[in-house]
Amino acid sequence: MAVNKEAELEELIRASGEETDDVAESSFDVATLLMVTRRSLPWMVLLIALGLTAAWLYLRYTQPVYQSASTLKIDQKTQSAVLGLGGVGGSAEAQQNAKNLAGEVELIKSNLIYRKLQDSLNLNVSYFVEGTVLASELYNATPFRIDYDPADQILYNRKFDIVFSDAKRFSLVSKAESGDVRVDGVFNQPLKIGNSFIVLKPTEQAIQPNIPYYFIIHDNSSVWSYIDQGLTVEIINPEANTIAISFKDHNPKKARDIVNKIDTLYLQEKLAKNTQATQQALAFLEGQLDQNSQRLQGAEEALQEFVKRNKTYDVKSDLATITEKMEALEEEKEQLLRKAGAIGEIAQLVEQNQVMVQEGDDIEQSIPALAILEDAQLTQQIGVLNDQQADMNRLLESYKPTTTAVQIRREQLDFTRRSIRRLLQQASQLVRSEVSKLNQQQRELEGRLQLLPEKETELVRLRRPFDLYEKTYLMLMDKKVEFSIQKAGTTPDFQILSPATLPTAPIFPVRTMVYAIGLAAGVALGLGLVAVRFFLHNTITTVRELESNTVAPVLGVVPSYDKEKLTVSKLIVDKNPKSAISEAIRSIRTNLEFLAPSKHKRLISITSTISGEGKTFVAVNLGGIIALSDQRVIIIDLDMRKPKVNLAFEAENTKGVSTILIERHTVQECIQRTSIPTLDFISAGPTPPNPSELILHPQFDQMLEELKQQYDVVIIDTPPVGLVTDGVLIMRKVDIPIYIVRAGYSKKTFLKNINKLVRGSGFNKLTTILNDAQAGGAYGYGYGYGYGYGSGYGYYEDEPAPKGLFGQLRRRFS
Length: 814
Description:
The chain is of the alpha/beta class and about 800 residues long. Helix content is about 50%, strand content about 15%. The strands form four sheets. An eight-stranded mixed beta sheet has the order 14-21-20-15-19-16-18-17, sandwiched between helices. The chain has a six-stranded antiparallel beta sheet with strand order 3-2-10-5-6-7, with no helix packed on it. A four-stranded antiparallel beta sheet has the order 11-12-1-13.
């Protein structure tokens, strides 16, 4: 018999473990979401209020930033043919214009402009007045100004507070790590601080003694950093060559003055730059004129010597044709020799890394030899080499020569130089070939001239270089006059399309945007709170959740008992017969009539998934309610691992079920009485080493039969079925198996065990009870915590009706 029961238990456990749960997971619990949202509404309102408050505080304690801007149009001038010696193609010209436009941006943001801006606007000294919350800069409205002689660094980047005792006397206070400095003085008298001197001079503004003033003297790096942080220069339209200059500052007047001053300084710099380019062109022309003048003088002296020696200067008419050809060949040969010289000059510059052209200058104007070659590809490669060399120089200022970026730039430079050498070699070969041809033609003509008188031949030979040098000298003189006129009439090559104006509204912070962000942040945090609470909500809280997630019917709801704090489960229905919990258990007793009428003997088991869900409390008080209806009830504690029924009745546990099953005591010897005459109980007894085997003993069935003969209702407090398997076999033997689910404590995953018991194990009569529910939920009760887990139970008094508006709101949203 025991073997058959063990096999039945194993089959039951295997069926309940292997049977899959057919109840689908709830895809989205709208009711729970609404419940969580309702409970989170006060927090959402609080978070929104906090967001708006944070936005107000941010606006209150943040200095506004103003921006002033101007728009410039750069007139890019093509100077490729400025010397009349050829030009580059259209594509190269477009690339050069784009580079020049980017170069103008870098010029405006250079330290050259910063230094002049610093000196012209006196940005080294900033004057402030302390406000209630923030300090305000007194730009061009200070009642005093500072003159200083910085013999050391003690004056720089320090805050000097000024306390005026009257209209002339003051105290200068500065705090430092080495110690505070305090100096008393009067206007126009030097004050010595360290080795430096400061002189305060009054202005037209009236001094208010009660207002705290202070000033800061900045060094050059601080001023340049301040300008660089606030200045923005960007290209608006590359095709129209327009540039926008803007500056951000807490003082709108200062921002406007800085932008206007930058426009003025840029105008001056452009004028100086254009004059410098013209001066370089004039210097090149002067050098060419000197060389050509010397050659012309040599030709003149040779011709004069010939005339003196031969006493003649006539050329026969039959030599006109040969002479014209010889002159043409000589002129062509001279041009080729000039190209050869230019090739050598460019090759020398490339080999010596001296191809450096200032940004924005014309390549051909800076390297006039390029114009002689009239090679667009070579000019473009020289420009690329110049840009790469400039890029390499800038990179070496920040990186070591061994870094990867520097090596990549060096490889690019070597590749460009090789390309230039190849082009120069090709051009040199072509020039040599052409010179060779011209020499051959000259030899032919000279052979023809040998037939003429020797004097005529010599005369013609002497006149050829003289005419050539004379023509070149006149051409260079014309160019020199042109550039002299250009230098005298140099004008800036940009226009101010829209000058800087005084900003009226700050660009930061934007009030509407800040409040919108604060509101959005509050709403987002509120929704995030709802989402977190919803996704973390993994416990059963209401009867609706219990019904929707299980196939077992709900027998009733047991509310929280808050009248007193109990360390263990106790019988309370006899002491509080009119309480809400007593009425709830009476409702459960009534519902039991539909499952098993009271005129029949009934065997009831009460179990749960884990310990702490309140099965002992429900068993004891359900037994008490049934006993109060004049039915004889006995409660059996089969949780022999953690017996608690004896604690509920404050009785001993020296004998009980375990001693009955080992036949040490009889059933009648173990029955214990309670305060209710018709309610008895049998404790679990001493904890045995094998509780499961004892339940399978035939003596257990005999005990139940004997109790059924003596009592109307037998209630069995079984062990949790989620921890041990004892309760599953006991549920097979009873008429009404009851499963306890504790609100706010039992996990939703525990309900899968109930569904497995009903569908996989055939417990069709299994019912559930929602325990520890707070008033206000479904079926008249919500959820809450009535007692703890592990350390004992904690039932409290019924909550009284809330008083006042706050209490009603709290109950409304709880």
